[in-house]
Prior knowledge:
about 160 residues, alpha+beta, Chemotaxis protein chec, two-stranded antiparallel sheet, 3 helices, globular
Amino acid sequence: xxxxxxxxxxxxxxxxxxxxxxxxxxxxxxxxxxxxTSSPEFKSTGLSVIIGVTGVIEGRVILDMPIPVALxxxxxxxxxxxxxxxELVRSSLGELGNMVSGKAVSKLMEQGYDLNITPPSxxxxxxxxxxxxxxxxxxxxxxxxxxxxxxxxxALNFV
Length: 159
C-alpha cells in the first residue's frame, strides 16, 4: 500500500463535488485553498457524510459542514424550508454524498479503474473524530457557498 497522494485519483472527487454541490445548491460555489494534513484524524464541524471507496483505490470521502449550512443545503435540495436537523436533512445529504462519489467513481471507471462505493454514513456533532487506518494523509478542499463552507476531505490511496 502506498502512502503517496495521487492527483489523478483526487481530481474526479473534487470536480464532482464542485459540480454536484453547485447544481444542488443553485448557488455560486468558489473553490477554497487545498490543504494537506499528515494526521489520520478528521474532526467534524457539524454534519459529516462519509462514503467509503473500495477496489484498486481504497479510502473515504467526507463531505463536512456546519449544521446551518446542512440545513440550508437540505432546504434547497427539497424546495422547502428546514429549520432543524432531522431525518430528511440526513437523508438528503447522504444522497448528496452518493451523487458526488458516484459521479467521481464513474469518471475513474472510464479511465479503467475497478472501484465501488459504500452506502453513506451520516454523523452529526461538532468535533466528532474520524480516524483512518489506511491513510496517513488527508486532503481538504473547501467549497465556499453564499451561505457557508462545505469541506471535501479525501483520504484515498492505491491498494
